[in-house]
Design goal:
Helix content is 42%, strand content 13%. By secondary structure, it is an alpha/beta fold. The chain folds into two domains: 278 residues, 3-Layer(aba) Sandwich (Rossmann fold), CATH 3.40.50; 114 residues, 3-Layer(aba) Sandwich (Rossmann fold), CATH 3.40.50.1100. Bound molecules: pyridoxal-5'-phosphate.
């Protein structure tokens, strides 16, 4: 039986900012729908759920941990098995590649409604064999784009920054991508990718949006929304009261927020975003009430969350849809991964990667402080969802942080 070691989650090491502009009373159509539409989310689900290997990922109840945290219930959406790619990102990048290719084919041939099965079966091979898609990544998004390109038969170039681990580079090459390592951090790799793609005539499939570039990242978020729509079905009639989800550029958070907003309207759960204190662009944006970038000077171990520039489409949703943001230090990550691996009381053991556990760590630190619990309206009646956004996407880093092989934890 593992109990949380309180000293490892010192509330003094984290900060919370409430969103003064959160609008719980707004309907979906007056709020998030302006950025991510119900039709877009539905189309993504209809398409991706037909792909080979699609399976609803598990929503694992953690009653032991819920008891320890003095809340009514806690469930963990485990994205580690998604399409065999290790993270929720499998839903977004590959779907955006499909959407991009289908728009290009329609433009070239006038044929509407290109379906992904025909694309996979090579019906349009002639039209796409010279197309190259590109992206910057800290690992997971690029893997999804490369996988999509491989499935649909186009070329793929992926940019990674100086700190992306060797294990993650190898995983990208295994999906058939040409991988280019650039100096600097994630945000710099985004800029290099945009410049070089422009001069080479490649098509950027980015998970982050900026001025003048919104269509593709919106498709990416529509893909992510599938996991939230699965949660809506899995919890059935009893919506959660709280969601804690980690943020990089904010795409995952905005997609989950929008899908819950659509499903539960004004009864939707309170929504909190958790970020590394080394890359707090969403936290700062909530504080400033405007999209705000930060310089990432030191890389966090939460590699997928190491982003200093918030996605504009994501901000459009979160500006009114998020109730607040929390930053946490890297020191919370290992203990949270170990807690899940060991299981609290008789909880199921879960393999969660470094970027998967930030949401849960945010919940743990909030329950360790009466003040924070009050601010977040957490109490013994709370029913909380956390999104386990990746499994052990780098097995060596996993072993270093947990002290055990991921396979052993699962067995
Ligand atoms: C495992 C994991 N979780 C969460 C995120 C954050 O997603 P977003 O950048 O859309 O906020 C990422 C991003 O790469 C990730 O890889």
């Amino acid at each position: 039986m593992t109990l949380i070691k309180r000293a490892e989650f010192d509330p003094a090491l984290s900060s919370f900012v409430a969103n003064p502009n959160a609008r719980q009373e707004l309907s979906f159509s007056d709020g998030a729908e302006k950025s991510i539409s119900a039709m877009g989310m539905k189309t993504a689900k209809q398409c991706v759920s037909k792909w080979d290997g699609y399976q609803v990922t598990s929503l694992t109840p953690l009653p032991g941990l819920a008891k320890e945290l003095r809340i009514s219930s806690l469930v963990y959406k485990d994205e580690g098995s998604r399409f065999g790619l290790g993270s929720f990102k499998a839903l977004g990048g590959a779907y955006a590649v499909y959407q991009l290719l289908s728009r290009m084919i329609t433009q070239a041939t006038g044929i509407e409604g290109i379906n992904s099965t025909d694309l996979k079966n090579g019906i349009y091979a002639e039209q796409i064999k010279d197309v190259t898609v590109s992206s910057a990544t800290d690992g997971n998004h690029g893997r999804s784009v490369a996988w999509g390109a491989q499935q649909f038969g186009c070329n793929c170039v992926i940019y990674i920054h100086a700190e992306v681990s060797h294990g993650r580079l190898v995983a990208l090459e295994e999906q058939g991508a040409t991988v280019v390592r650039v100096d600097g951090n994630y945000d710099q790799s985004v800029h290099v990718c945009a410049e070089q793609s422009d001069s080479n005539g490649w098509h950027v499939v980015s998970d982050t949006s900026y001025e003048g570039y919104k269509e593709v990242p919106t498709n990416v978020m529509e893909g992510y929304s599938i996991l939230a729509s699965e949660i809506v079905d899995q919890v059935n009639l009893l919506p959660p009261t709280h969601v804690f989800v980690q943020g990089g550029v904010g795409g995952l958070a905005a997609a989950v927020n929008a899908a819950f907003w659509q499903a539960w309207e004004t009864e939707r759960p309170l929504f909190y975003i958790v970020e590394p204190d080394l890359a707090p662009c969403i936290y700062k944006s909530v504080e400033d009430q405007a999209p705000t970038n930060v310089d990432v000077e030191t890389e966090t171990i939460m590699a997928g969350l190491s982003c200093g520039e918030i996605s504009l489409v994501a901000w459009d949703v979160l500006a009114q849809g998020a109730n607040g943001a929390i930053v946490i230090p890297d020191s919370f990550v290992g203990p949270t991964m170990r807690l899940l691996a060991e299981g609290c009381a008789n909880d199921t053991a879960i393999v969660a990667g470094e970027s998967a556990v930030a949401g849960l760590a945010g919940l743990i630190v909030a329950r360790g402080s009466e003040t924070l619990s009050k601010l977040l309206q957490l109490d013994v009646n709370s029913r909380v969802v956390v999104i386990g956004s990746e499994g052990a996407t780098d097995v060596d880093i996993y072993r270093q942080l947990v002290g055990e092989l991921a396979d052993k934890v699962l067995s």
